[in-house]
Amino acid sequence: MGSAALDQPNLMTTPLHSLHLELGARMTAFAGYDMPIQYPLGVLKEHLHARAAAGLFDISHMGLIALHAKSDDGRDASRALERLVPADVVGLAQGRLRYAFFTSVAGGILDDLMVGNCGDHLVLVVNAARKEADEAHLRVQLVDECDVERLDRALIALQGPKAEAALALLAPECTSMRFMDVRTLTLMGTECMVMRSGYTGEDGFEISVPADIAREIAEELLANPCVAPIGLGARDSLRLEAGLCLYGSDIDESTTPVEAGLSWAIQKVRRRGGGREGGFPGAETILGQLEHGAPRHRVGLRPEGRAPVRAGTTLFAEEGAGLQIGSVTSGGFGPSLNAPIAMGYLPTALAVPGTTVFADLRGKRLPVDVTKLPFIEPKYKRG
Amino acid sequence: MLKYTEDHEWLRLEGDIATVGITAHATELLGDIVFVQLPELGATLAKGDGAAVVESVKAASDVFAPLAGEVVELNQAIVEDPAIVNTDPQGAGWFFKLRLADAKAMNGLMDEAAYKKLTE
Questions:
Q1: Is B106 on the interface with A (CB under 8 A)?
Q2: Into how many domains does chain A fold?
Q3: Which of A43, A236, A309, A328 to mutate to test the interface with B (most CBs of B within 10 A)?
Q4: Mean pLDDT of the B72-92 span
């Protein structure tokens, strides 16, 4: 099959591109990059391997941005970033990460991201498809307070119950990290930023590595028989089972964080009555919804039967007639559940686990049950 | 007699009954199959009609009736365990059997050599 780059010569490549081809990956164009969708193991087995052992993912296409305060006082960068996100950044301790999102004036979501406090600077991990827009957003909005630096590094995720043991062979100190810690560790003689975080619901790490040793580090990790390379196909089924949003599908400028079920990421101090209430785009709308509720809500969905119900599928309250009440935003097959799963938005009154709605699938209305998220139990190493 | 179509289906004729499935090449393109929807038993299909649906992890694909005929048997095993289509697409992974309206129409389909050429 070769690489998608053969047909689209303007695709960018990550530092691990040649490794993917050597490993026999089937490639695809994703966010302007030639990326591995799967390896010879296949999507199902790669997914199951990540939950049973350890999977290595190339996520170098994502954006890595450093925010330095012009004043050299890191707290100024945190205060400035709070003008763009409803999260508590000022209260984020050094060496810790937080999930956040850029909001729009209308209260929608411009991108979701991770922000880490690295002491003298903040580091942001943003989605590949939004990284240019995010960088521009930061440069314009924070021009007085911050220097915005795009970090040109590889990003490798190592996820699964055996991830810690695998990484410990290169960096024994990783065993003392908790979920959402960020540290600089030395891997094969080079300083790397290591985050105990991920997009799978498993314990694991995301490691920022200088591009010129990325392949060496990936190969060292892959030399461990517990570690298998995992493509974007399984990355998607893993995150769906974990109930995690995909920007552009489950969240976008038309969804507020409250509708999306992401209120937990808006800490108390940024809410009404908090010490740093509001002060981010769309605050009126979002804080209003936090108080009075939102008209619709993201839900987990379990189709009855075996047919997958995919993004874009329309949802109805009744089997026979009636108007569309919502739609599916992500859907597919959950290998760990051996069943189809999906996420979508429903009117708040129907967004209750146990409710049955109907999906229009190839002209027939199939019953679909609302369930709580996530579909699987997360395995984060907390406390 | 074993024949192939451009849509990556195979047919094996015995008398006037053709067993229909999808080729190994098709399963490689599709990846892991997670769901199969077979036609109705007794349905009369014209050549090119949508007959079955195959869902891989990523997307749905249609399987078409390679020739006109009546659906006389279904392979329930692949509905119970869609993975069989990946492991044995041209054997145990068969989809359905058609009583052909015109068995001679098999002659118009590709033989193995021609199909191999198509998929090179």
A1: no
A2: 2
A3: A43
A4: 97
Mean pLDDT of A123-152: 97
Give residue for tokens 């839900």: A299
* CATH number of the domain within which A319 lies: 2.40.30.110
Please check whether residues A220 and A337 belong to one and the same domain: no
Nearest to B57 among A233, A307, A362 (CB): A233
CATH of the domain at A185: 3.30.1360.120
pLDDT at A3 over 70: no
Q: How far lies B86's CA from each of A41, A229, A325, A336, B93, in Å? A: 13, 21, 37, 19, 7
Residue of B nearest to A331 (CA): B58
pLDDT recorded at residue A2 = 55
Share of chain A above pLDDT 90, in %: 96
Q: Do A327 and A223 share a domain, yes or no?
A: no
pLDDT of residue A8: 72
Mutate to test the interface with B, among A27, A306, A361 (most CBs of B within 10 A): A306
Calculated CA dihedral for residues A72, A74, A78, A81, nearest 10 degrees: 40
Residues forming beta bridges with residue A301, ordered by sequence position: A342, A370
Residue B93 and residue A183: Cα distance in Å, rounded?
51
Distance from CA of A185 to the nearest CA of B (A): 37
A380 vs A88, A241, A346, CA distance in Å?
Answer: 21, 15, 29
ipTM tops 0.90 = no
Q: Are A56 and A14 within 8 A, CB to CB? A: no
Give the number of domains in chain B: 1
**CATH number of residue B47's parent domain:** 2.40.50.100
Residue B114 counted as domain residue: no
Regarding whether A237 and A299 lie in a shared domain, the answer is no
Considering only CB atoms, which chain A residues are within 8 Å of B79?
306
Q: What is the band of B58 on the pLDDT scale with cuts at 50, 70, 90?
A: confident
Name the residue range of residue A50's domain. 4-58+153-241
Residues with Cβ within 8 Å of A80's Cβ and at least 6 positions away in sequence, in order, are A67, A69, A142, A145, A146
Among candidates A44, A310, A340 on the partner chain, residue whose Cβ is nearest the Cβ of B32: A44
The whole-number average pLDDT for the span B44-64 is: 93
Q: Is residue A104 part of a domain?
A: no
- Answer yes or no: is B68 within a domain: yes
Lowest mean pLDDT among A54-58, A59-63, A260-264, B25-29: B25-29
- Whole-model pTM: value is 0.94
Domain membership of residue B63 as a residue range: 2-105
Torsional class of A80: left (φ above 0), alpha (ψ -120 to 50), beta (otherwise): alpha
Q: Measured between CA atoms, how close is A159 to chain B, in angstroms?
A: 21
The answer to the question of residue A19 being in a domain is yes
Domain boundary among A225, A241, A257: A241
